[in-house]
């Protein structure tokens, strides 16, 4: 599950406003604000999924490890499929 901090960080990497992300994810701006909030507001899973997919389509990769969560922006999200690369955490990652 993506976190509010990951969404805010991903949006910052892309240079997107909340309005731009809400538009690209086809969610209400108020729903996105709830998702980005640190106050523990409930967010529908389909909203969370639509936001995740919109960010991934733009090149964001969500990272999770024992040490925490994060995001990474890949340079060519629509590029060659099946290309293997090494994450900064030392794991091999393969683009589907």
Number of strands: 4
Oligomer: single chain
Supply the helix-strand structural class.
Answer: alpha+beta
Examine the coordinates and then state which fold CATH places here, giving the name of the CATH topology.
434 Repressor (Amino-terminal Domain)
What is the CA-CA span between the terminal residues?
Answer: 19 Å
**Averaged pLDDT, please?**
86
Strand share of the residues?
15-25%
Written overview of the protein:
The chain is an alpha+beta fold and 96 residues long. The protein has one domain (4-94): 434 Repressor (Amino-terminal Domain), CATH 1.10.260. The chain contains 4 helices and 4 strands; from the N terminus they run ααααββββ. The strands form 2 sheets. It has a two-stranded antiparallel sheet. Strands 3-4 form a two-stranded antiparallel sheet. A hairpin with a 5-residue loop joins strand 3 (84-86) and strand 4 (92-94). Helix 2 crosses helix 3 (29-36) and helix 2 (18-25) crosses helix 4. The radius of gyration is 14 Å and the shape is globular. The two termini are 19 Å apart. Mean pLDDT is 86; it is low at 80-88.
């Amino acid at each position: 599950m993506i976190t509010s901090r990951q969404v805010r960080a991903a949006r910052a990497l892309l240079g997107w406003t909340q309005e731009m992300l809400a538009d690209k994810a086809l969610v209400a701006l108020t729903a996105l604000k709830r998702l980005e909030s640190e106050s523990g507001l409930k967010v529908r899973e389909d909203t969370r999924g639509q936001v995740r997919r919109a960010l991934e389509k733009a090149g964001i990769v969500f990272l999770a490890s024992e040490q925490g969560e994060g995001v990474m922006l890949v340079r060519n999200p629509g590029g060659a499929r099946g290309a293997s690369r090494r994450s900064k955490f030392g794991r091999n990652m393969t683009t589907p």
